[in-house]
Write a structure and sequence with these properties.
The chain is globular. It is an alpha/beta fold and about 400 residues long. The protein contains 14 helices and 18 strands. Strand 2 and strand 3 form a beta hairpin. Helix 3 packs across helix 4 and helix 12 crosses helix 14. The longest helix has 17 residues. The C terminus is likely disordered. Strands 1, 2, 3, 4, 5, 15, 16, 17 and 18 form a nine-stranded mixed β-sheet that branches.
Length: about 400
């Protein structure tokens, strides 16, 4: 794509524009320095160093996977049929056993392959809960080498080495991602909050049924850990949802993963009614392929089964959860999640003329329950093309010499 400082224009393309995802039937996106500088209707007539022909394609914001466990990439489907606790419960869950016994290079290799697959399906940002302490973080960093994608690495200390690891973990991660709060005392949660102040603090919460006498994971996460992101909230009480909303805490839901473990479907409607921001994630690669189109379709239809309502949720609600909603809960909405001036040029180009999509009478509905990963024709991260299934027609624009 050339010099990142050059002005590049995707021209003649349909666009889902802005935070409201307004459909432009034919427009352009001008990119400079990795930032969206201008979005307009019609053909671009300004100065550009490179034009890309977007005819027949739809530009959508890069998808945001708000919660994933990439370390599980080496163990696909080994936990199917087992309970949540038997698969991921520390320290004896199957996942933790496999992570400990599997060669490092094997795990790194398959993490990298999963990241490449995510990018090819339009995911331009993900937040990974990184097990394994300091070494786990370096494994993911190795898997990411040479790849262009927005990656939030949320580390966690090994419980047996917590005091020794915290300074380094704070320095090499984007934040904290705990398995749960139950394994930590009140003082340990306060200590973790102090160490990761200013970074994204997150934990799983209310993923499984619990007794009324158990301490609230949600309350401890908010009041002691100062968490800004809670994952799952499948069995959260109304007062816990309100507490999260009052403290501007976001939620990442993972419906396919919850379903795989037989836990149910998150009550997203109740979350929105409580005033929560909600993003969509794919959770453990061991259980679910990190494909946001599959996640959107499942969420769209499973919630209609849950509510026995053919009108809820709207496709726009689910699409937002996979884009701007995910950016919001990760604290990144000012930088990504929509095609808007001033944000990163994180864009996926979708083939609307493919046989499984055309004719599309409701574009966002098609994106949510018809489009597949193989309909993603090209992906841009900060204006750089990082994946393509087709050769995009490019035109280098030469500046006309001025008369002396």
């Amino acid at each position: 794509m050339g010099d990142v400082g050059a002005r590049k224009v995707i021209d003649g393309v349909k666009i889902l524009y802005g935070d409201e995802f307004i459909l432009m039937e034919k427009g352009y996106i001008a990119i400079e320095g990795g930032i969206i500088k201008e979005v307009g209707v019609g053909s671009y007539s300004g100065k550009a160093d490179l034009k890309i022909d977007g005819r027949g394609l739809l530009a959508i914001p890069g998808l945001v996977n708000a919660h994933v466990h990439l370390g599980d990439s080496a163990f696909k489907d080994l936990g199917l049929g087992l309970s949540l606790d038997k698969v991921v419960g520390p320290p004896r869950g199957l996942k933790h056993f496999l992570l400990e016994k599997t060669p490092r290079d094997f795990i790194v290799h398959h993490c990298r392959r999963t990241i490449e697959d995510m990018v090819s399906s339009g995911i331009t940002c993900f937040a990974d809960f990184r097990e394994g302490g300091i070494e786990g973080v370096f494994m993911l960093r190795d898997a990411l080498k040479g790849l262009r994608v927005e990656a939030l690495i949320l580390g966690r200390p090994k419980e047996e080495n917590m005091a020794e690891e915290l300074n380094m973990l704070q320095a090499i991660t984007d934040g904290l991602g705990l398995g749960d709060t139950k394994a930590f005392s009140d003082e340990e949660l306060r200590m973790l909050s102090r160490y990761f102040k200013g970074k994204l603090i997150s934990t799983h919460a209310a993923e499984a049924p619990r007794s009324l006498t158990e301490p609230s994971e949600v309350e401890r996460a908010i009041k002691l850990l100062n968490a800004r992101l809670l994952v799952h909230m499948l069995y959260a009480y109304d007062w816990e949802l309100r507490l999260a909303a009052e403290n501007n805490v976001g939620v990442a839901v993972c419906p396919r993963s919850n379903a795989c473990f037989g836990l149910g479907v998150p009550d997203v409607k109740r979350m929105f009614e409580a005033g929560l921001k909600v993003g969509l994630g794919t959770d453990n690669v061991m259980t679910c392929q990190p494909d946001m189109f599959r996640e959107m379709e499942f969420t769209f239809k499973a919630l209609r089964i849950l509510y026995r309502d053919p009108s809820y949720p709207k496709p726009e609600t689910v699409f937002r959860m996979a884009t701007l909603g995910g950016a919001e809960v990760l604290g990144l909405a000012s930088k990504m999640g929509s095609i808007s001036e001033g944000k990163f040029a994180n864009i996926a180009l979708i083939d609307l003329e493919a046989s499984n999509v055309s004719p599309s009478h409701k574009v966002i509905a098609s994106l949510v329950h018809r489009v597949r990963a193989d309909n993603v024709m090209a992906v841009f991260v900060r204006g750089e093309q990082v994946f393509s299934r087709i050769k995009l027609e490019e035109e280098k624009v030469e500046e006309t010499p001025r008369n002396p």
